[in-house]
Amino acid sequence: MSEAARRLAVKAIDRGYQLSAEALERLVKTENPLGVLEELLSWLENRRISQVIIDRAVLERFLAERAGLAGEAPEEPPLDVALESPTYEGLAIEGVAEEQRIYLLSRYQSIRRVFEERGLSLRPARELMREGGEAYVVGMILNIRRRDTHFLVEMEDPVDNWSLIAPTRDRALSEKMEYILPDMVVVFRVKSRRGLLVASDVYLPDTPGRRQPWRGPDRNVCIISDIHVGSMRHAAERLKNFLDWLGGPENEAEKTSLLIINGDLVEGVYVFPGQEAELSLKSYGEQFAEAAKALTKIPPRIKIIYVPGNHEPCRRALPQPPIQPRFRQILGDGRILYTGNPAWIKVGGLKILAFHGQTLDDIIQAGTLFSYSTLRDRSGELMELLLKSRHLAPTLGVATPILPTRTDYLAIPEPPDVLCLGHTHVAAYTAYKGTQLVNTGSWQEQTRIQESIGLEPSVGTAALLNLKTLSIRFLTF
User: Fold this and answer.
1) 3-class SS letters over the chain
2) At residue 43, does pLDDT exceed 90?
3) For the whole model, what pTM was predicted?
4) Which of 108, 117, 216, 217 is most solvent-facing, going by the fewest CB within 10 Å?
């Protein structure tokens, strides 16, 4: 490091800042570098830009303004954002049993194909029971009962129903069985003993490893969920602080080009018994009007995607269509992309699967592995289970209604680059086999129901996804 560069670095550190190598190299080349640095530090302090590390981008922005060229600086091209999934608005059912049979068959076949693509040779269970031997068998779980010495598992496929046992003395197998829920399509490795199938292993469809490394622009996608405007417990001041930050001069805010609202923007009405006593705004119209006031603070350069949740005024059964047109008019049709739930979104070449996450309730209530009181510790595993199951609704009929459509829109035919969820109100992040998984917490203080089940929400959290590095970090307001 030259003496001039060293003096610049020391001066920045004395004022509480650190120059990146690129910024330092650029600064040395300016006329009167120490004077320019002094102006830069005053500029940062006057604008209340809180970042400690001064990178090349911040320095260039300052130099452009200093030279009076900020207005002439070339604008970055707009972020290419496209919805790749249907909005589900035209879906309708007749309500007959045959529709449910067709839906389950579609679910079974889509996941069976995943196993076949992995090269597994699958044998019909009845044939194996009759002829003996050892093989892989595939089926949908009908029921699981745990006994002292084994799990008794009832299965079905499009042809037949059959059963197998999974010995509890096999510790590795027993641990895997804790993740298996009714309605999952799984493969067992079994041996036929006198017509009885005994399992030695179990496999979820799972995902392959990472695809090609991602290369994107140095831009941010901000993801929030569960705002609950209209609730007495809505964290309005925290939301205001977040929106002020989003429209402010901080570098990470200025790099944000897309905001995803992943469900429950409003509290809704009659969503659960006794809700009316907990509302500060008693109608959807009032709630959306208040939400619209908040959204006007978002800079026009930021695109907005709005995915519905279980508190929105639309069909409760999954997949959900966007909110009704009369409420879209209140929020504004021009700048918001209204999607269904789930929504496959392509941002440049990046695939984001945004799902509000109602079915996380079903997983928690159907098994013994997860509970609301342990979500802060186990949310990563809970999110991973969706990818391992290759399905957004691994188990059915517990709490979340599912529309029995001919196409299974809740299947995950290929792993997304990012899977973002909400609904549980607990912020969490993990990475699994190349997919970034994030739950974005909430903007609602702990409710009476949450307190009764031991759920401690993460209040005032937003997730920031950088498109260049695919790194995710949480901001708390």
Assistant:
1) CCHHHHHHHHHHHHCCCEECHHHHHHHHCCCCHHHHHHHHHHHHHHCCCCCCEECHHHHHHHHHHHCCCHHHCCCCCCCCEEECCCCCCCCCCCCCHHHHHHHHHHHHHHHHHHHHHCCCCECCHHHHHHHCEEEEEEEEEEEEEECCCEEEEEEECCCCEEEEEEECCCHHHHHHHCCCCCCCEEEEEEEEECCEEEEEEEECCCCCCCCCCCCCCCCEEEEECCCCECECCECHHHHHHHHHHHCCCCHHHHCEEEEEEECCCECCCCCCCCHHHHECCCCHHHHHHHHHHHHCCCCCCCEEEEECCCCCCCCCCECECCCCHHHHHHHCCCCEEECCECEEEEECCEEEEECCCCCHHHHHHHCCCCCHHHHHHHHHHHHHHHHHHCECCCCCCCCCCECCCCCCCCECCCCCCEEEECCCCCEEEEEECCEEEEEECECECCCHHHHHHCCCCCECEEEEEECCCCCEEEEEC
2) no
3) 0.82
4) 117
CATH architecture assigned to 81-90+209-476:
4-Layer Sandwich (3.60)
CA 287, CA 265: separation in Å to the nearest integer? Answer: 9
In the prediction, which pLDDT does 70 show? 46
- Write out pLDDT tens, residues 196-213: 899 999 999 999 876 666
Quick check: 350 pLDDT over 50? yes
Do residues 164 and 153 lie in contact, with contact meaning Cβ atoms separated by under 8 Å? Answer: yes
- Bridge-partner residues for 89, per DSSP? none
Is residue 237 scored above 80 in pLDDT? yes
Judged by DSSP in three states, 56 sits in helix
How are strands ordered across the β-sheet holding 81-83? 81-83, 343-347, 350-354, 418-421, 435-440, 427-432
Please list the residue range(s) of the chain that carry CATH number 2.40.50.140. Answer: 120-203
Question: What is the CATH number assigned to the segment(s) 3-72?
Answer: 1.10.8.60
- Sort 90 into a burial class: Cβ within 10 Å, 0-12 / 13-18 / 19+: exposed
Within the chain, all domains assigned CATH 1.10.8.60 are found at 3-72
Q: How far apart are CA 338 and CA 316, in angstroms?
A: 16
354-388 pLDDT, tens digit per residue, is 999 999 999 999 988 999 999 999 999 999 999 99
Crossing angle of helices 33-46 and 56-66, rounded to 10°: 100
The class of domain 120-203 in CATH terms is mainly beta
Domain ranges in the chain with CATH number 3.60.21.50: 81-90+209-476
Kindly report, residue by residue over 65-107, the tens digit of the pLDDT.
Answer: 877 654 544 456 778 899 999 999 989 899 899 999 999 999 9
Place of tokens 């030259």: 2
